[in-house]
Design a protein that fits this description.
By secondary structure, this protein is of the alpha+beta class. Helix content is 45%, strand content 14%. The protein contains 32 helices and 27 strands. The strands form six sheets. It has an eight-stranded mixed sheet, with helices on one face. The longest helix is centred in the last third of the chain and has 48 residues, at 647-694. The radius of gyration is 30 Å and the shape is globular.
């Protein structure tokens, strides 16, 4: 086939050389009766003819011999030549005539999608998915330009690098362009006829979201996730995502970007009904049967009709081998990553590299790991790699027996002296400071925020990474964060004292003595929301508006209500203090409450439904602690001198107070640390707005998928949108793929099992073992919550089942009877806040949000770290 233009009905899968991989598959599908929107292909022969006409072979020769440092520059030059050249008259007329025929046949109001289809694309071992361009909303006036853009996308740095690694000559590859009627889809998605993460052929995976499929394919939205069993097409698993953005089927006039925010009420709404899930599943299986291997299909739904937009073989299956090409020994360090339940974006990773020394810590595929070998070298003890990996992972558990290494002692003493010179003075400065000593950081943050001389990098260095030696302690939140974990050691001393002097005391005595520390800012934040809820309940107009309207619309209604003035003033004061907080706040990409208080209003609305005063439970904990203290003093009275001087009781009380002080310091330093991140994010967003005005970026959020050096090059004009478009798309897709995977706990080293195990069936019946984080036992109804900004209706006494927690989750602890969390440790946010409120908590229980369903009765044993299923009846899926 040597025609310049070929219609779908003239193409089969054998015509890859002319139509490219995508075009050949679409022609094959159309010929077999699949519901493919009509279209045609500007063939690879047309591309080859055009390249010859503009004598591009000279530049391709230079590209083949270019060094890695020269590739970007040469690619940019080739793309400019292609985009600025005119398509020969006979070819351009034929393209426009065929387009006119398509418009006449389909309807005069249609617009088209123009998709690139490379002749080396989707061929078994080589998948170019995501590396070549697709353009939407294309009409007659833009058609020829978009075809040239498709041809130019052959020479993005990513596509060139990929061809080089696959051994494909750049001069042998040409690009066909698929011109197809664009379906104005209400719902779009992808379906895999084998699970691309686990590799299972028994599972069919579908992901869907609102609007056009570009939001999913480009990685701009986390879609709904469905897993269907191949045998009988039974729905096995369903995860409804928070779909924050969409690409609408029609562009608004004057819009600079195609991305739109999804209305808050639709974000957590399910996109696919059971009938639609069955339709797309059957369509995907039919495609697999025709092509003879697992398929990845793209589809769209308009007016209830499912259209097939693409089908290609799944070229990569099974869990990513994250250890590939990683030399050394690394282990996840839970005290640092317990709030990183998703891999960090590239820009966030760059900033973390400023805080964590690369020899000791390393970000691998978006996850933070500690280097076992380096850590071992700085310890003056003999310990196996396996034991050290287990200790670093389960930091806070009983350490293994270790012997002093006399050979390493002199070296380690030198390191310790160096550390003392660096941190020792600061550690001594942070003993016994007033509880509000870090408040001065807020003034520093505001000053930096208002100073235009501080860019994102300079802001990070001033507020977090490069604090000055003579700064007040309240300015140095990063060092405070490093010094605060001293409470772990004081807790260990307290436990040993109690065990030695009072061996028959209750197991949770140490935790109970250290509970109730006032001044923990994340706990006060929860109480602040409770106060807002009480204020709202006292004023009927405010209460009615909050109950009647959805959270995303109620703020405008409240501002129009005269009697809501007091409530809004109280809300403003709350946001002034806590507006820098948000869900997944250690990720720079995550929005903050100051930007959109919808989730805060949702939590207030939830609390209005609660009659129980959370302060009542705190008073009960205080009473229990007072009784324990009296019991300890009575039992110690038999020791010599205790009756008169109370040396043992004074020691116990001192260690409990020290533990509470440093525990509060650790949690509060996080409050201000996030404030620093908030200022960095504000600086980044201002840069993004500037780039979007200049046309250097097209969609909000794209900047977080660039590196710091690339942002600098955008500012100087060395890079433009066409230089970063492909790399942003590729990184977004990779980020979503990694987010679906559980990172290995260790790389290059095996961990010896600690006291804690992941075993099921701990005792008779259905039970799971995690790690104890807050003592006590509680039985109640499980409520799985995946996102507290959306799902906030936790009834009093329900057991919170969560993937992780950070301070954005704190308000839910006020009404929960107990908490069970997938990740975390004794030192984690969940454990700290649970102990503050005196409720049982179990952490580090893998997949608890999948293994425990809504409505199930569970017993949470916070002393042993065990969760038992009391009722076998499963409630509604989360």
């Amino acid at each position: 086939m040597t025609a310049m233009i070929v219609r779908f009905e003239e193409i089969s899968r054998k015509d890859v050389a002319a139509a490219g991989g995508k075009g050949a598959n679409l022609g094959e599908l159309a010929g077999q009766g699949f519901p493919v929107p009509p279209g045609f292909v500007v063939s690879a022969h047309a591309c080859e003819s055009f390249f010859k006409a503009i004598e591009l072979y000279k530049e391709l020769d230079a590209l083949n011999s270019a060094s890695p440092d020269e590739i970007d520059k040469q690619c940019r030059k080739i793309r400019e030549i292609i985009e600025q050249a005119e398509i020969p008259l006979d070819l351009s007329e034929e393209i426009l005539a065929t387009h006119a025929e398509l418009v006449k046949k389909s309807g005069n109001n249609i617009v088209c999608a123009v998709r690139s289809s490379a002749t080396a694309e989707d061929l078994g071992d080589a998948s170019f998915a995501g590396q070549h361009a697709t353009y939407y909303y294309v009409d007659k006036d833009r058609l020829l330009t978009m075809v040239k853009h498709c041809w130019a996308s052959l020479f993005s740095p990513e596509a060139v690098s990929y061809r080089t690694t696959q051994g494909i000559d750049h001069g042998s590859v040409f690009m066909a362009a698929v011109v197809q009627e664009m379906i104005l889809s209400e719902i779009s998605g992808v379906t895999f006829t084998a699970n691309p993460v686990s590799g299972s052929r028994d599972e069919i995976v579908t992901e869907s979201s609102w609007g056009m499929g570009a939001a999913i394919v480009d990685g701009r939205v986390t879609p709904d996730h469905y897993i269907v069993e191949r045998d009988g097409f039974k729905l096995r698993e369903k995860r409804i995502a928070d779909k924050r953005f969409m690409v609408p089927p029609r562009l608004e006039k004057g819009s600079a970007t195609r991305l739109r925010e999804v209305p808050h009420g639709m974000r957590q709404k399910e996109t696919l009904s059971p009938d639609l899930i069955l339709k797309v599943t059957q369509l995907a299986v039919r495609a697999e049967e025709h092509f003879g291997n697992p398929q990845d299909i793209e589809w769209a739904i308009a007016d209830g009709q499912v259209y097939m937009l693409q089908s290609r073989s799944i070229t990569v299956m099974g869990r990513e081998d994250i250890e590939r090409d990683i030399k050394g020994q690394y282990v996840v360090f839970k005290p640092l990553i317990e709030n990183f339940t998703d891999p960090v974006t590239p820009l966030t990773a760059d900033f973390y590299q400023l805080f964590f020394a690369p020899p000791l810590f390393r970000i691998i595929k978006g996850w933070l790991y500690v280097n076992v070998k380096v850590f071992k070298a700085i310890l003056p003890v003999k310990i196996s790699d396996e034991d050290l990996a287990a200790l670093l992972y389960d930091f806070g558990t009983k350490p293994p027996d270790m012997k002093l290494s006399w050979l390493k002692l002199p070296y380690c003493l030198c390191l310790a002296f160096f550390a003392y010179l660096t941190f020792g003075v600061f550690y001594s400065r942070t003993r016994g400071l007033p509880g509000n000593f870090m408040d001065m950081f807020r003034k520093l943050a505001e000053k930096v925020d208002q100073d235009p001389a501080f860019g994102p990098l300079e802001t990070s260095e001033r507020l977090l990474a490069g604090t000055k030696i003579f700064d007040p302690a309240g300015h140095q939140v990063f060092l405070v964060n490093l010094s605060a974990p001293r409470y772990f050691f004081s807790m260990r001393v307290l436990e040993k004292l109690l065990h030695r002097w009072l061996p028959d005391l209750r197991d949770d005595a140490a935790s109970l003595l250290c509970s109730g520390s006032k001044g923990v800012l994340s706990a006060e934040m929860g109480r602040g929301i409770w106060t807002l809820a009480k204020e709202a309940k006292q004023h009927k107009p405010v209460r009615d508006l909050l109950e009647k309207h959805k959270p995303e619309k109620v703020l405008a209604e409240l501002k129009a209500e005269q009697k809501a003035k007091d409530f809004l003033e109280l809300l403003d004061r709350f946001l002034v203090k806590n507006g820098h907080r948000g869900l997944k706040e250690l990720e720079l990409r995550s929005p903050r409450w100051e930007e959109n208080p919808v989730s805060v209003l949702g939590m207030i609305r939830n609390y209005m439904l609660v009659e129980t005063d959370p302060g009542k439970h705190e008073k009960e904990v205080d009473k229990t602690r007072d009784e324990l203290e009296k019991e300890i003093q009575i039992n110690l009275a038999n020791y010599p001198l205790e009756r008169f001087f109370k040396p043992r009781w004074r020691m116990i009380r001192h260690m409990a107070n020290v533990t509470k002080y440093f525990a509060r310091m650790r949690e509060n330093s996080r409050f201000y640390h996030i404030m620093g991140f908030h200022i960095i994010r504000k600086k980044i967003l201002r840069l993004e707005d500037e780039f979007m005005r200049q046309g250097k970026l097209k969609c909000k959020g794209d900047i977080f998928f660039l590196h710091i050096k690339e942002i600098d090059r955008l500012q100087t004009g060395e890079l433009a949108w066409r230089d970063v478009e492909d790399r942003i798309r590729e990184r977004r897709m990779e980020h979503i793929r990694r987010s679906k995977m559980t990172p290995p706990k260790s790389i290059g080293v095996k961990m010896k099992k600690t006291v804690r195990t992941d075993a099921r069936d701990v005792e008779e019946g259905e039970a799971f073992r995690g790690q104890p984080a807050s003592p006590g036992s509680y039985e109640g109804t499980a409520h799985v919550i995946l996102d507290p900004s959306i799902d906030v209706e936790l009834k009093p006494g329900e057991v919170l089942i969560a993937p992780y927690t950070d301070p954005a989750w704190t308000p839910l602890f006020l009404t929960a009877g107990a908490a069970v969390v997938e990740v975390g440790s004794y030192l984690s946010h969940a454990g700290t806040v649970a102990r503050e409120f005196g409720m049982p908590c179990v952490v580090d229980l893998p997949d608890c949000t999948k293994r425990i369903h809504n409505g199930v009765r569970v017993q949470v044993d916070g002393d042993q770290g065990i969760v038992r299923l009391i009722s076998e009846e499963k409630g509604e899926d989360p």
